Amino acid sequence: MKTTLMTVAAAAFLTAGCQQKMADQPAHRPYEESNLFPFKQSARPIEKGTIHVSQPVEGDPLTTWLTELGRTPQPAYPNPTPDMKDVMTVPGAPTDNANFVDKFPFALSGGDYTRGQQLFRAVCAECHGAAGHGNGKIPERGFLRPPSYHRDPAHPTDNEVTNAARPTEVVGARDWSSMRPDAASGRAVRDYTDHPQGFSRGFSRLGKRMPLDKVNVGYIFQVITWGFGGMASHTTQLPDPADRWRVAAYIRALQLSQLAENAKLPGDLRQAIDQPPVKKDATPEVKH
Ligand code: HEC
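A: This is the predicted complex of the input protein with heme C.
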């Protein structure tokens, strides 16, 4: 048995050496003429009803993340500059939060959040960081830094406004975008450092300052499904749309964990936080 295997391996090695036909293979190109299948094409026709993994299916809530408004072309910018006045957006452009559904298509249970957490840690945290601050291992090694999902807790009141209404000044922490103008190529490379931390870059491009904890959940679903800017689509990693909603739900949980409103906390937790700090002289003396 062993000898036979070795002979076969040696034969394969020797013949491979003589026949360098990499560029001239008998492989078919898609839809080339061929006698392989009855209809004389190298590829078979796509089965009726086949859908692409990121294709919205009409009427299926699991793959419907755009509202009626989101599917309708709108002016590209809420405050268009004269040159952009007549430019209309494509469906899904983040011009308005109301373009995206604000409800999950199914009721979420504890198990959905646990699965969302597992998936987030497996396919998002390497870039976005385990808690979503945008400090994963990949950006640490030079990849474009994603925005944080969390606003600066010291300035949580910074809500949706148009860029025009709030031109340059940023209160508190900024988006820590690592994109810098590229001096060598002379290309204008997008820099988000004039953004407050925790704001959507997608909305900002089209003229809105939109905190990522206030974007409707349909937008997060869209970013996972289509990708955005430097981030690729994640439908290969998350082919089941229900899993994408679960990951979006986990992002919401992370956002709550970082910027919870005191009034919305359960009573016992709020009480624990509201306790007046223990007076210094009440602390027992530590004996060495
Ligand atoms: C390879 C790194 C990488 C992975 C993995 C990744 N992202 Fe991103 N993500 C980015 C980058 C980079 C940006 C910012 C893109 C830009 O500014 O052009 C981003 C942006 C985002 C945004 C904000 C979009 C906006 O409008 O500002 C969301 C939400 C998001 N990602 C969610 C996710 C989720 C959910 C996953 C996992 C399913 C994920 N990302 C996986 C790199 C990644």
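Residues 61-261 form one domain. The chain has a mean pLDDT of 81.
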